[in-house]
Each structure stands twice: as structure tokens, then as C-alpha cells.
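Lecture notes, unit on protein representations.

Consider one protein chain, 219 amino acids long.
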Amino acid sequence: MELSESVARRHMVRSFADRPLDPAVVDRLLGLALRAPTAGNTRGTAWLVLTGSETAAYWDHTTTLDWRERSRRWAGLRRAPVIVLALTSPDAYVARYGEPDKARTGLRLGGDASKPTGERGRGPALGSDAAAWPVPYWFGDAAFGTMSLLLGATAEGLGACFLGNFRGEVSLLGALGVPQGWRLFGAVLVGHPDGGDHPSASLRRSGPRDPERVHRGRW
């Protein structure tokens, strides 16, 4: 499948058939994620793959019983045979951009980026220099890898969706043995679509037309 076709056909699939994926296919998708752009060649992202019964840990820590009982999508989502967690290490980027060839960028954090802070309890510990990172590269790289994975799933004839990090990050990563300092960007569910998807209500939302989103020379 050509890249342009994969981009045009890609959409979020939230209902999966109860069929496992060929491990070779999963490896190909991970290969695409690992080839995504990475700022400063930091390679500060990692991908934690849950398959089969392992996927229950994700749902146990990131959803509530009340949600599972109410959601029309729960049955279809839970059948996804593979969940790939997109992880990123802020500390790796802070360290990389403190190296001699990057020091001139001024992208540094005050304090110790490895210490837990805030409600989520997983760094970085933002200090007085936090404004030097107007767009954190660690989340950008995780997004690049995630998009590569989503497009790869489309090219393989599979369905996939991205679930953001809304709750349960600390307990999930702790239960899975992820070292301190790593953040959960989100999760990519991959599997065979079962045709019973519930389209997102967001699709009914009106918004700017495509021509209105492109500006040339100036706004």
C-alpha cells in the first residue's frame, strides 16, 4: 500500500475481532515505530507490548468498573489482541541536550528530572528553566512513533486506535516494572476489525474546512 493511501484510509478502529496477530506483523509495526524521527538522535522512547491475557493489566489500571459497565465500546476494545504502550523518558532528552553539541540550544531543566513530581508522580521535576522547553521533545518523539505505528497497521490491513493517557499511569507502569522517570504517552490498540465499531461522536462535529487550515506566506 502506498503511503498516501495509508494516510487517506487510516482511521481509529475501536472494535476488534477475537483473533490473535501474527508476531511477525507486530515486529514489523514496532520496527516502524523505532524508525520514527527522534530529536538529537536521543532515542528516548520505548514500546511495551502487551498481548493476549497481558492486555488485562492495561484495562485494570486505566479504566474503572463503572466505565466498563456503561461503555458501548468496552466489549470491542477489550478484544484487541495487542496493546502497545508508547513510553518516553524526559530525562534522556534533558541529558542529551546538555551534551556539548546541543548545549547552545539552552534546552535545560532546573532540578532533577528523574524525581517524581506533581499529581502523576512521574517527573520531570520542572524547575526555573522549564520555559526553555516550550514543546517537550519527549512527547513529540512519542507522537512520531505512534503515528508510524498507526499508519503501519493500516498498511497491514489491520485496525488500530490510540488511547490517551487519562488515568492510572503511575499504577500501570509500576505494575509492569517500568523504571521511574518514564512517562506513558498513550496506548495503541491493534487487531483485526470486526465491523461492529461505534463511530466517535466527534465525527459529527463541524470544524474548519481543510483550505482554512493552510496558510501561505503569513496567516
